[in-house]
Design a protein that fits this description.
It is a single chain. Helix content is 50%, strand content 8%. By secondary structure, the chain is mainly alpha-helical. The strands form 3 sheets. It has a 3-stranded mixed beta sheet. Strands 1-2 form a two-stranded antiparallel ribbon. Helix 6 crosses helix 10.
Length: 275
Amino acid sequence: MKPIRSLARRAALALAATAAAAGAAAVHAQGSTADEIAKYRQMLAEGNPAELWEAAGEELWKKPAGPKNASLEQCDLGKGPGVTKGAYAELPRYFKDANKVMDLEQRLAWCRVTLQGLTKEEATRNPFSASGKPSDIERLVAYLTGESRGVKMNVQLNHPEEKRTYALGQKMFFYRGGAYDFACATCHAVDGQRIRLQDLPNLLTDKGAQAAYTTWPAYRVSQGEVRSMQHRLYDCLRQQRFPEPAYGSDVITALTMFLAKNANGGTYDGPAMKR
């Protein structure tokens, strides 16, 4: 019996050693893959096509349009009429003139209505580019977010509506639903998770929220377009099999507020480049 037990023990030890080696190799492979992806993104970022979207957006910002034949240069993004530098780093925020908390895209639509005389339907039409249908909104967003590059995120909860919106966004982050019974927290509330080759940042930590939020909007290589934060959240909810959110909805603004506030202190570096 002793030789058999000894043989079994050696076999078990060998299997354990093999499993440990395989596990270590897998961890090393994952780390190596993540490093290579980071290098790839860095090389691409040196010639980010988002710069073309930013230039086009600046032209649209300054170009008279709409029934009032007015530009958007007097649009108040929270730092005074026409001030674009650093504005995105403080959004979403409460706007007294609209009596609500708005993210960038809601505020942009509001300015297009009030300053240029467009209807709400006209101001929010074609928010996301499709084949042969470029989006003016995505170009304006690229320009306005680029104006905060290098600025620290500084979203405040001073007004009661800002606090209420943040609380709603937090609730939305943890809300489970859809065909898969998923929540945002399913993928983004713990460290070290991945989906295929994609790291899933923990958006409840300063490091994770800052790394994720400060690089959106972004030029998506796979789509050949700059995608806004509204589109990013829309796509997340689609993958969770949630009902399609209305563009510019208050729920999306609330979720944005939650993520943006969590990213406070991070340096904004968008529009970035993604796969």
